[in-house]
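Support reply, case 0932

Customer input (verbatim):
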Amino acid sequence: MNIFRLAGDMTHLLSILVLLLKIYATKSCSGVSRKTQELYAIVFLARYLDLFTDFISVYNTFMKIVFIASSLAIVWCIRVHPMVKRSYDKDLDTFRHYLLVAASFLLALFLHEKFTFLEIFWAFSIYLEAVAILPQLVLLQRSGNVDNLTGQYVFFLGAYRGLYILNWIYRYLTEPRFTRWIACVSGVVQTALYADFFYYYFISWKNNSKLKLPA
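Our regenerated output:
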């Protein structure tokens, strides 16, 4: 564990708490892509298949359970909660996310570090996480205006990936056998997807104005 990974984990956790705060405080999921949340649920379920077979630490196990449980809770709220689901922007959230699932799984079958069941699904989760934010970004661009909590959620999610890139650089420099190149490349791709959002988020913060994304 290093400071960059810890900061990344805490930022990731903060992004989830912000999203849960928005949903439970406002009883609304307006501006939130259900499809992105479903992709994240798939990501965590696929990545943490070793939850009951490989024990690393209490912290590691706790974080795995938190990410799985929170992602499923968010999807449940958007799909099932009687008040929350009424605010879902179905007409704006039209990204064909199943194509991302299929493409990520096929890529994992051909590009992986070890040809084992757990490693294939680990690679699949890494590839899928790299593009899981796309439905959310498309929805925000279509809606134009972005409410404060949704904007903060996406910002913290992007910051988490940026911190993890620093974590991988640190591990590469300090761990002789660090070879997680799949995670490194996918992390760079994922962070790049946030570039446009970060630009408009900074402009909004600088001008103390409401965050707006161009259509």
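We compared this against your earlier run and they match. Two observations from our side: Residues 2 and 148 are 31 Å apart (CA to CA). The chain has a mean pLDDT of 87. Please reopen the case if you see a mismatch on your end.
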